[in-house]
């Protein structure tokens, strides 16, 4: 086979001018079975970007899967070189894993650019590992393929399905209402995590792996295979085989990641009831790919679509059943069949989306609903703006019937409600004061959190899904309207208004909002405004802004200097100009 373009690794291992350097590059790799002959043979060197480690338990399955990937690479004639990526563990990393997406992105760029790697397998799983890898692949633009590790098996607790994260939010309310004790809380949480894998709900991990597949970056059906299943290992092997072919074909991300591919991904997120974190991550990947995507594209192209996949938190089931029902291809098949996907987008299979989806209709209509009979209409993200912010989203697929009735269906005021703001400066303030009787929180209140965006936190925290005070939960009030400049977990069933941009820490409107102000939300017009006179707003803007903590690490300081707002993906704005950098190999 002749490669479409000479492999860049030849610059290291077959340099006609500097044979002394070639010898130096070769000698250390020989320690573990790669021979100089192989490295000089002109076969492609395939990186395996290993995202699993003891610190990244959601991706730990990749430590085993990498062996299958290597087998596939070798069998197809490539040479595998595995290396670690910066760990990201959503639940454990303080002050937030959101600091790590851009860090993992940046370090992966340096590796892919600075080492003799011709193509790469991106191992993904936990939330931000997918966008970090895709962002880096675009910057470097060498052939890249996404291998998701897959979700955990379904969790069961006393005969009920318990899903990652979702069980935590729901059990917290039961704990607050006095219905369960701490021991029961812990047992529900551990039962939701029965095996290796990432979150088994349609949280951010499953959403972002579905997005990678919808973009055309994974082999068909890859995203949803549970981590421990036999098919997962086979998928790893096939992914290894395919990336070698892609190296020969020079099938790079820039040939796959078009605007149409991103619109396909946006529509898929709506149909699967995907995480609200898809909004910044899709924007981030598009910006690094150089694709012209506006924040409003997500709401314009995604909102008026129905929810088809019956998976927690918007629906009932978990990852195993989703996979058995056909997974992402079956959900996409419904959209394609309605003419709602661009079928001609090229994918890593070397074929188009339409070709990949042929014959993928589901046979489980309880899990994946027909387009004409969905779980919910208009299920994508609703975009909002107003005098408090330029951009925020609301995940409409998780609006409960009770919430809808209480706030959105008052006769004569459909889709419109007003609420008294209760403003918290970060989550510590929320936890200290939420049960303070002096705040007199009732059902006509809206809980607001600020200081939780990319610059304020820093990183942007998953804190907007604030629970009502205990006395309301005990009365059966499961959710109050919430608003904030942070994010929320993709596993949360709270219909929050979140990802508010600009955030309070950079002078956004939440900075001047006061407890007691009335906020008017109009979902029909996509508006959210504080009913405060302009003169009063100006007066407050001249006052001292709300406090934010100092940076505690060098990276926090760099992150704050370089990172933009969630509306635009929270990327390092200076980084998006670097694209296709592997076209030129670095000097000796
Ligand atoms: Fe890692 Fe959910 S916490 S996948
Ligand atoms: Mg999360």
From TrEMBL:
Enzyme nomenclature, EC number: 4.2.1.9
Gene3D superfamilies: IlvD/EDD C-terminal domain-like (3.50.30.80)
MF terms (GO), sorted A to Z: dihydroxy-acid dehydratase activity
Record-annotated Dihydroxy-acid/6-phosphogluconate dehydratase C-terminal domain positions: 366-569
Pfam families in UniProt: ILV_EDD_C (PF24877), ILVD_EDD_N (PF00920)
Keywords: Iron, Iron-sulfur, Lyase, Metal-binding
Dihydroxy-acid/6-phosphogluconate dehydratase N-terminal domain location: 43-356
NCBIfam families associated with the record: PRK06131.1, PRK13017.1
Entry's family note: Belongs to the IlvD/Edd family.
Descriptive protein name: Dihydroxy-acid dehydratase
């Amino acid at each position: 086979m002749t490669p479409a373009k000479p492999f860049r690794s030849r610059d290291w291992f077959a340099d006609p001018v500097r044979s002394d350097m070639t010898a130096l590059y070769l000698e250390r790799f020989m320690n573990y079975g790669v021979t100089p002959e192989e490295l000089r043979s002109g076969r492609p060197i395939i990186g395996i970007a290993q995202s699993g480690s003891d610190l990244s338990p959601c991706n730990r399955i990749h430590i085993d899967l990498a062996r299958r990937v290597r087998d596939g690479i070798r069998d197809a004639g490539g040479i595998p070189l595995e290396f670690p990526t910066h760990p990201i563990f959503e639940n454990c990393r303080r002050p937030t894993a959101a600091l790590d997406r851009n860090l993992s992105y940046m370090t992966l760029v340096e590796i892919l650019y600075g080492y003799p790697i011709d193509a790469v397998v991106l191992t993904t799983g936990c939330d931000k590992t997918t966008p970090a890898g895709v962002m880096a692949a675009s910057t470097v633009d060498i052939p890249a393929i996404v291998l998701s590790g897959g979700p955990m098996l379904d969790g069961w607790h006393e005969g009920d399905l318990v899903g990652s994260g979702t069980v935590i939010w729901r059990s917290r309310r039961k704990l607050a209402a006095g219905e369960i004790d701490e021991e029961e809380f812990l047992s529900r949480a551990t039962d939701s995590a029965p095996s290796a894998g990432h979150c088994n709900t349609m949280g951010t991990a499953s959403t972002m792996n579905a997005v990678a597949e919808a973009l055309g970056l994974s082999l068909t059906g890859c995203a949803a295979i549970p981590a421990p299943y036999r098919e997962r290992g086979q998928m790893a092997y096939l992914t290894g085989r395919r990336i070698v072919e892609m190296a020969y074909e020079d099938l790079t991300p820039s040939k796959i990641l078009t605007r149409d591919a991103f619109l396909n991904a946006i529509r898929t997120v709506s149909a699967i009831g995907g995480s609200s974190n898809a909004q910044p991550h899709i924007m981030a990947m598009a910006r690094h790919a150089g694709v012209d995507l506006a924040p409003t594209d997500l709401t314009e192209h995604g909102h008026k679509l129905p929810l088809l996949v019956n998976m927690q938190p918007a629906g009932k089931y978990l990852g195993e059943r989703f996979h058995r029902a056909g997974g992402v291809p079956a959900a996409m098949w419904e959209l394609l069949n309605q003419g709602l996907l661009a079928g001609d987008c090229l994918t890593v299979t070397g074929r188009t989306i339409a070709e990949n989806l042929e014959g993928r209709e589901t046979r489980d209509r309880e899990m994946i609903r027909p387009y004409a009979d969905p779980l919910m209409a208009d299920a994508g993200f609703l975009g909002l703006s107003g005098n408090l912010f330029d951009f925020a989203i609301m995940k409409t697929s998780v609006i409960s019937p009770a919430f809808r009735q209480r706030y959105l269906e008052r006769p004569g005021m459909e889709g419109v409600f007003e609420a008294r703001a209760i403003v918290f400066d970060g989550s510590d303030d929320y936890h200290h004061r939420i049960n303070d009787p002096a705040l007199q929180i009732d059902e006509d209140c809206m809980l607001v959190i600020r200081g939780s965006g990319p610059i304020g936190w820093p990183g942007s925290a998953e804190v907007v899904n604030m629970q009502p005070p205990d006395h309301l939960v005990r009365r059966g009030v499961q959710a109050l309207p919430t608003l904030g400049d942070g994010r929320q977990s993709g596993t949360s069933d709270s219909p929050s208004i979140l990802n508010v941009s600009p955030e309070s820490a950079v002078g956004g409107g939440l900075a001047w909002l006061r407890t007691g102000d009335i906020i008017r939300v109009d979902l029909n017009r996509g508006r959210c405004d504080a009913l405060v006179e302009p003169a009063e707003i100006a007066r407050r803007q001249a006052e001292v802004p709300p406090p934010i903590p100092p940076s505690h690490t060098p990276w926090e300081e760099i992150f704050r200097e370089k990172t933009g707002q969630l509306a635009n993906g929270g990327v390092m704005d200076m980084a998006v100009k670097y694209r296709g950098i592997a076209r030129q190999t670095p000097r000796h």
